[in-house]
Amino acid sequence: MKDEIDRFLRHCKVILGLSGATLAAYSSDLAQFDGFVKKKLHNLSGDDIYWFLSQFDNKRTLNRKLSAINRFLGWCYDILLTDENWAIKGAKLPRALPTYLTSETIERALSAIDKREWVGLRDYALIIFLYASGCRISEALSAQKQDISDGWLRVRFGKGAKERLVPIAPRALKAIDEYLAARDMASPYLFINYKGERLSRVYAFEITKRYLGVSPHALRHSFATALITGGADLRVVQELLGHSSLNTTQIYTHLEQRHLLESVSNFHPLSRHAA
Question: Which of 94, 233, 270, 274 fits a 20 to 30 Å CA distance from 31?
């Protein structure tokens, strides 16, 4: 199936514009699948797929492999390479709630940053930028000064090569302006290291870990959580996060439901007074 897999990967890259990380995962998983079954596409059976998947005890790993296989075989069916329309259901996983921080926790961390040097101003600006924008860390590190205009951030390097506009809170804009004014190295990128080069993901992780004890992605979850509990519509949050499907954003539904329950418990007269 190597030729078909190569064609599929080119389709994912050129037509779908999938990220390098996704392409690498698909390539690895499908090469492993092809090496295991060692069959031509037209000889493939459901038993072959199940036998391959039976190797994996970890449900998340199994589902990742299955996602690649389903997408590949679905593409093969769509372009008439096979008559079989495979769509195998994945293993059920316990719903993991995203790690997020309260605004109070983030404020305490921000207050602990020494802002007397430009590096401290950068760390402060990075944390508040992530919390204010909900950006993925890759998007934040790819952001350039020209991408911020009139209080809006233009995310030009979003997942799947999609662009979007995100409003940035004035306090975050002020933090970025103070940091940029303090650094003396020219670079188009917002966040740089000592050498004036674009900040790496590893170092960005070290910054949020040092001050907050979490990865940068937790600030993205914190952004979404703050909006949902504040009453924002789920579709608005989807747009701001750059999710292609509302299903992805629905992981935050539990927060919305909990907030509604707390509101009823706190404010409805029948909840506040015994019958």
Answer: 94
The one catalytic residue in 159, 179, 211, 221 is 159
* Domain 2-78, CATH class in plain words: mainly alpha
203 is catalytic: no
Kindly report whether the global pTM for this prediction surpasses the value 0.85. no
> Cα-flanking dihedrals φ and ψ of residue 118, to 5°?
-65, -30
> Does the structure show a pLDDT above 60 at 256?
no
Is residue 2 among the annotated active site residues? no
The predicted-structure confidence for 175-228, as pLDDT tens digits, reads as follows 999 999 999 898 999 999 999 999 998 899 999 999 999 989 899 989 988 888
Count CB atoms within 10 A of the CB of residue 55.
11
Q: What digits encode the pLDDT tens for the residues 120-142?
A: 999 999 999 999 999 999 899 99
Tokens of 253: 């539904």
Q: Let me know if 89 is a catalytic residue.
A: no
Q: How far is the C-alpha of 65 from the C-alpha of 52, rounded, in Å?
A: 9
Q: Active-site residue 115, yes or no?
A: no
136 is catalytic: yes
Smallest Cα–Cα separation from 148: which of 119, 127, 172, 128?
A: 172
Domain boundaries, the chain: 2-78, 103-261
Q: Are 190 and 175 in contact (CB under 8 A)?
A: no
